[in-house]
């Protein structure tokens, strides 16, 4: 195994035994990418995220938020108010990932119609 200056192991996601693949597994989920993109616009409450991200269930939203929080990409802020107020925001690490995810999302929006068979004719009105 190679090491970086300072003694940390050099990770190689192409290796089957690379520990970083667990991070890729979470980030490869569509909901994770959409949540990161939405939080790139600023902190949001759970209900705001559900409205912003069409089609996500409450259960899937909460599960994905917890996974992203465990990776240190987002933080949960509980304001200890009645009624309860909780917001989610990107951490410094999450903010460094946000422009990459946003660029990927915009690329998909710009290129998807050319990539999907018959999609151009059936979704011409979506733009």
UniProtKB/TrEMBL annotation:
Pfam families: HxlR. Transmembrane segments: none annotated. Keywords: DNA-binding, Transcription, Transcription regulation. The keyword Transcription applies. CDD domains: HTH_ARSR (cd00090). InterPro entries: ArsR-like_HTH, HTH_HxlR, WH-like_DNA-bd_sf, WH_DNA-bd_sf. Residues 18-116 form the HTH hxlR-type domain. The keyword Glycoprotein does not apply. Coiled coil: none annotated. PANTHER family: TRANSCRIPTIONAL REGULATOR, MARR FAMILY, TRANSCRIPTIONAL REGULATORY PROTEIN. This is Helix-turn-helix domain-containing protein. It comes from Sphingomonas agrestis.
